[in-house]
Design goal:
By secondary structure, the protein is an alpha/beta fold. The chain is built from 11 helices and 13 strands. It has 2 domains: 4-216, DHBP synthase; 226-316, Threonylcarbamoyl-AMP synthase, C-terminal domain (Rossmann fold, 3-Layer(aba) Sandwich). It has helices at 4-15, 37-47, 65-68, 74-83, 100-103, 117-126, 146-153, 192-199, 235-244, 272-288, 305-316, and strands spanning 20-22, 29-33, 56-58, 88-93, 108-112, 130-131, 159-160, 173-176, 183-186, 226-230, 249-254, 265-268, 293-297. The strands form 2 sheets. It has a 9-stranded mixed beta sheet with strand order 7-1-2-6-3-5-4-8-9, with helices on both faces. A 4-stranded parallel beta sheet has the order 10-13-11-12, with helices on both faces. The longest helix is centred in the last third of the chain and has 17 residues, at 272-288. It is globular and about 60 Å long. The protein binds threonylcarbamoyladenylate and magnesium ion.
């Protein structure tokens, strides 16, 4: 619950260059005043994120769009009208208000109007923009509850606002509209079919783009356990095979999956949106259970299933040494 006192404290901290973790409908964000370069640098330092990976600027409403972006195409306005506030981020040419610290020196800026009432209350009271990446250490699973944030970043954050579990559960869908042809840079909490419906044309997904999108690094969103991807029908055989090699194995999959009772199971709903909502929570639980291998069932490749498949593929990707 956000009391007026707590809201005032959060805004005061942000005005003085502090860092506040707050809920959005997608995942928890680690927020700093986007126009305060020192505060933004602290966000990078806390996350352990390379300074060249740009942050999303969260704004209170679509009316603030021209403060941060210029040459706004009609298609951006259409998407904003249809999906803001919500899990959609638009990449557009930036104005001077979006500094190099936030954009990593690129001439574009990523903008989003979050739907969570706490994020919205803080943004409205602050009256500016909040640079906020997901409130986890770089390359780890994003937090979807306030206790997750405290586990990861606890003492280093000036304040953690608790808004309960995030309802979407995966990060926003990023649509690049900075160069004529729209493209999805990160599938996320808004289905790509919805973007295509509003734009009335196919929109390619371009995750391995040349722009610096941290989510496009091969291994990202990774739990500590190794992850292998399977279609649900192959899950049992795969899990038994790995267990026969002496590994501590669990299975992440829908409730319909039939498994022997002695297999640790991390259940997600059958529908893609439900799978997205619980994905990061279950990956954390799998780590707490001390698994060495997680056999993860891929959801159908439609709707939010694309975002879940994307995050699971990154979790299963080869990891750099020591990661
Ligand atoms: O749902 C979300 O988007 C969450 C919540 C907190 O709003 N935020 C989030 O932030 O996922 P972060 O920093 O973990 O991911 C931001 C993504 C990165 O992949 C970054 O590279 C990309 O946005 N990005 C930021 N500015 C960009 C730009 N100008 N061009 C292309 N990609 C950009
Ligand atoms: Mg992130």
């Amino acid at each position: 619950m956000l009391t007026p006192d707590l809201l005032e404290r959060a805004v005061e901290i942000l005005r003085q260059g502090g860092v506040v973790a707050l809920p959005t409908e997608t995942v928890y964000g680690l927020a700093a005043n986007a126009e305060d370069e020192l505060a933004v640098r602290r966000v990078f330092a806390i996350k352990g994120r390379p300074a060249t990976h740009p942050l999303i600027v969260h704004i209170p409403g679509v009316e603030a769009l021209p403060d941060w972006a210029r040459d706004i195409p009609e298609e951006a306005r259409r998407l904003a009208a249809a999906f803001w506030p919500g899990p959609l981020t638009l990449v557009l040419p930036r104005t001077a208000r979006a500094t190099d610290a936030v954009t990593g020196g690129q001439d574009t800026v990523a903008l989003r109007v979050p739907a969570h009432p706490i994020a919205h209350a803080v943004l409205s009271a602050l009256g500016g923009g909040l640079a906020a990446p997901s409130a986890n250490r770089f390359g780890r699973v994003s937090p979807t509850t306030a206790p997750h944030v405290r586990e990861d970043l606890g003492a280093e954050v000036d304040l953690v606002l608790d808004g309960g579990p995030c309802t979407v559960g995966v990060e926003s869908t990023i649509v690049d509209l900075s160069s004529g042809e729209p493209a999805i840079l990160r599938p996320g909490g808004l289905a790509s079919e919805e973007v295509e419906r509003v734009l009335g044309r196919p929109v390619p997904i371009r995750t391995a783009s040349t722009v610096r999108v941290s989510g496009s690094l091969a291994s990202h969103y990774a739990p500590r356990a190794g992850v292998v991807l399977v279609e649900p029908a192959e899950a049992l055989a795969k899990a038994e095979g790995l267990r026969a090699q002496g590994l501590r194995v669990g299975v992440l999959g829908p409730s319909s999956l039939v498994l022997p009772p002695d297999f640790p199971r991390f259940e997600v709903p059958e529908d893609p949106a439900g799978a997205a909502r619980y994905l990061y929570m279950r990956l954390r639980e799998a780590d707490q259970a001390g698994l060495e291998m997680l056999v993860a069932c891929l959801p159908p490749a439609r709707g939010l299933g694309l975002a879940v498949r994307d995050r699971l593929s990154r979790a299963a990707a080869p990891r750099p040494p020591g990661a």
